[in-house]
Amino acid sequence: MTAKPLTILTGINRPSEPSSGSLILVNDLYPATPDTRTIYLGRGPVDREWRSAFDELIPISTTKQPQGPAFDTYVDELTQEVGARIEQIRPDAIHAQNVGFALSLAFSRTAGTIPMISIAHGPEVMAAERDATERASMREVAAASAAIVTPTSILADHLDRLTGRRFTDRITVIPWGIRMADAQAHDQPSTGTGALSLVHAGRLDDNKSTVTAIEALALTDQPHALTVIGEGPLRQHLEQRAVELGLRDRIHFEPRMPRAELWGLLPSFDAFVFTTKGLEAFGLVLIEAQAHGLPVVYSALPGVREILGNAGKAYVPGDPRSLASALDEMGQDFPLRKALTKASLTNARRYDIATTGRHLHQLTLRVIP
Fold first, then answer.
1. Least CB-packed of 9, 30, 290, 343 within 10 Å?
2. What is the radius of gyration, based on Cα positions, of the chain?
3. Residue 39 sits in the same domain as residue 142
4. Residue 98: pLDDT band by 50, 70, 90 thresholds?
5. What is the average per-residue pLDDT within 290-310?
6. What 3-state class would DSSP assign to 5?
7. Cβ–Cβ under 8 Å, residues 41 and 11
8. pTM surpassing 0.85?
9. What distance in Å separates the CA atoms of residue 137 and residue 129, rounded to the nearest whole number?
10. Do 140 and 206 belong together in one domain?
11. What is the pLDDT confidence band of residue 189, given thresholds at 50, 70 and 90?
12. Which among 34, 40, 35, 43 is positioned nearest to 14, based on CA atoms?
């Protein structure tokens, strides 16, 4: 007799489109989670391909409000809406994404006897680092959770500290992953030494520190070229900085593109540049680059080291001169690039989304009475 699939209620309180790593991850994760029927709460607009990832997609109607005077009223209204959905669906378990954000609060206040797993993505951890109200929300959701999932031990420690180390035994590390079967790897780097064709992809904000890569190119001994792919509040500033440094011909900007298009482009570059200078939850783009055979030059953050191991070339976070030196070394040392290409492909295979889905399913089974 075939076991009945688990009904999971989850969601992210943002437009249902692949606009961030968290949304891309969730869109990949639930189709890769075995024996599961997933109902997703999200906001419009809904990306055309988004609906296919879930058995049902239900739009959130409560008007969204940021932290401030209207936030508590907003959470109360959202909680009423979510509570009505829970009564209607009666899921076997709830997966509350972003520990402490509004939708996870609504889940925690209405779950009742339904077991809830909260899943940390990073932005809520950074918000809780800055703000006492965000920390209080995180602690409320953690207290209501049967288990808490983070993708790295570094993020787990941050969350554990922010919640007063009261829920340490509930925290489980399950690394994120990508759809490895879709990656088109090339296992041999371009031959020879000299200037590199580099790529950087991600949100263009202060923490991602794309400016470090731009300023590094002004300090390199070799005329490396850089393609920057993404959007964000610093896009115009970064373009101006490239012009100020006389790098107009060596730095090319592209808008954020669909993942299939990005993956199609990755094998045409020599190396990927990762520049985040603060907390990084996981960095899916690192694994995407490695899965396509690209050596990664990365800022030496503890969480990134945990993900990459020895499969990358590190530099001092936020230090353009350190990055410039790392880029020149990679450009001059073909055996190094060849070894890192091999190590990158090996490392990427550890992060298949099917493995993530299987581990999350096993954890969900363990918390259901």
1. 343
2. 21
3. yes
4. very high
5. 91
6. coil
7. yes
8. yes
9. 12
10. no
11. low
12. 43
DSSP letter (8 states) at residue 333 = -
pLDDT tens, residue by residue, 223-275: 999 999 999 999 999 999 999 999 999 999 999 998 889 999 999 999 999 99
Look at the chain and report how many structural domains it folds into: 2
| Residue 161 belongs to domain spanning | 6-177+352-367
Reported residue count of the chain is 369
- What gap in Å lies between CA 251 and CA 241, rounded to an integer? 10
Q: What is the DSSP string of 223-278?
A: --EEEEE---TTHHHHHHHHHHTT-TTTEEEE----HHHHHHHGGGSSEEEE---S
Structural tokens at position 313: 């070339």
**What is the chain's percent helix, strand, coil content, to nearest 5?**
45, 20, 35
Tokens of 74: 């907003």
CATH number for the domain including 332? Answer: 3.40.50.2000
| C-beta of residue 138 within 8 angstroms of C-beta of residue 99 | yes
φ/ψ bin of 291: left (φ > 0), alpha (ψ from -120 to 50), beta (otherwise): alpha
CA dist 354 and 180 (Å) reads 9
